[in-house]
Amino acid sequence: MSGILYLCATPIGNLEDITMRAVRILKEVDIIAAEDTRNSQKLLNHYDIHTKMTSYHEHNKWDKGRTLVSKLLEGENIALITDAGMPGISDPGAELVQLAAEAGITVTVIPGATASLSALTLSALPTRYFVFEGFLPRESKDRKKRLEKLENEDRTMIVYEAPHRLKGTLKDLCDTFGKDRKAAVVRELTKKHETVLRETLGGLSSYYETNEPKGECVIVIEGCDPEKQTAEAQKQWEELSIKEHYDLYIANGMDRKEAMKQVGKDRGLSKRDIYQALVGQ
């Protein structure tokens, strides 16, 4: 009979951010697969856990994953942990779950603290609908391309960022979403120096120009307001003639009929009105 793979959430800051069940499972399993064994040793020492550890991280996840699956098939129970939070969320783990599931191995979760939801609840931004983006691409060019896809996202957005990249990311967020968009930077969650800065993106960007970021950060960004976007778009169309408005849609690949229909919709006019206006020019 095969063993069980346990996905164990670990503390995101304070060492007490762990459930009693997780501590018990970590003591009972045969192996703990850890993202960084040296870092995880501090947690194990704190709770007097002496289970054997092995490394499982981004650079060995496929080879080590197959080895772990073999051990599971032999009947050993394994707990997967990362440096902080839930395995598989912006950390290695999803691939091991995939391999285990394909092999018919039972996978279960030991839930606990997660930085994304903790930051969201502290942000004072809408929590009913949200989207988790994790870490954005490191290269500025790739990061901007990803943000452009989120330009019209109306759900609250959650982004992870390292302190040395925070300034550049905030600048890119300002460029994409505008400086007036509400946001929050949450850092050092559940630790002694936990801080929550609720501001506009422009205000946050200015703050970190003179205050060096420290500690892992979560950025929570307000989604776009469709009504406000419509009003801004309307203002833009009002600055264009009907012909310029029509030509803009044609340049973006619309055919003539669709372009006239869209111009009419934007301006609250019929397609016939737009046609007559274009013919008369």
Which key phrases capture this entry?
44% helix; 12 helices; 18% strand; five-stranded mixed beta sheet; single chain; 281 residues; alpha/beta; five-stranded parallel beta sheet
Backbone structural class: alpha/beta
Strand content: 15-25%
Largest sheet: 5 strands, parallel
What value does the Rg take, in angstroms?
A: 25 Å
Please give the share of residues in helix.
40-55%
- Our count of helices gives 12
Q: Quick one: overall form?
A: elongated
Terminal Cα separation, in Å? Answer: 80 Å
- SSE sequence, one letter per element: EHEHEHEHEHEHEHEEHEHHHH
Low-confidence stretches: none
The average pLDDT score comes to 91
Strand order of the largest sheet: 3-2-4-1-5
Number of strands: 10
Task: Please render the helix and strand layout as text.
Blueprint: E1 4-8, H1 20-28, E2 31-34, H2 37-46, E3 52-55, H3 61-73, E4 78-81, H4 94-102, E5 106-110, H5 115-122, E6 130-135, H6 140-149, E7 156-161, H7 166-177, E8 182-187, E9 195-200, H8 201-210, E10 217-221, H9 226-238, H10 242-251, H11 256-267, H12 271-279
Parallel strand pairs: 1-4, 1-5, 2-3, 2-4, 6-7
Antiparallel strand pairs: 7-10, 8-9, 8-10
Helix pairs in contact: 3-4, 6-7, 7-8, 10-11, 11-12
Task: Tell me briefly what this model is.
This protein has twelve helices and ten strands. The protein has helices at 20-28, 37-46, 61-73, 94-102, 115-122, 140-149, 166-177, 201-210, 226-238, 242-251, 256-267, 271-279; strands spanning 4-8, 31-34, 52-55, 78-81, 106-110, 130-135, 156-161, 182-187, 195-200, 217-221.
